[in-house]
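Case study.
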Amino acid sequence: METTLVLLKPDAVRRNLMAEIIGRFERRGFRFRGMRLIQLDRATAETHYAEHSERPFFGELVDFITSGPIVALALEGEGAVLTVRDMMGKTNPLDSAPGTIRGDLALLLAENIIHGSDSVESAERELAIYFPDGLL
Ligand code: IDP
Ligand code: MG
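After joint prediction, the assembly is written out as follows.
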C-alpha cells in the first residue's frame, strides 16, 4: 500500500475548488491519512521544489505556491502515487485530458491547481515536509 502527497495549490483554494477536488479523491476510494490547510513560507516552498531550483521559472513557482493558503493531503491506496498522477492529468492543463482534474478545472501551466508526488521516493520526502508528526 502506498501513501502519496497532494497539494491543492493557492489557485484551487481561491477558486473554491477544495471540495470538488477532495471529493474526487474520496469517491475514488483513497484513505485520508492527513489533511492540513497551511500557508507555506518561502524556505519550505524552496525545499519542496528543490528539483526545479535551477529552472528559469523557479522564482515564479515559489511566489505562486506561497501566494495564499494551500491544502496538503496524505492519500493512501493501492498504487496511490500513479493513480493520483493519472487523476491530475498532464502538467500543462492544455495537454490534460477531459475527466482529469487539470483537464476539467485548469487552463494555465503556472496555475495548474494541484501537485502530486511523482514517485514513491518523492512521496516519502514530501510527506515528511508537510506531516512531520506522522500520519493517521
Ligand atoms: P508536475 O506538477 O506535473 O509534477 P513539474 O514538472 O514537477 O510538474 O513542475 C512543477 C510545477 O512547476 C508545475 O506543476 C507547474 O505549475 C510549474 N511549471 C512547470 N513547468 C513550468 C514552466 O515552463 N513555466 C512555468 N511554470 C512551470
Ligand atoms: Mg513534479
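Observations recorded in class. Helices lie at 10-14, 18-28, 42-48, 58-65, 80-88, 101-105, 120-130. The radius of gyration is 14 Å. We will return to this complex in the next lecture.
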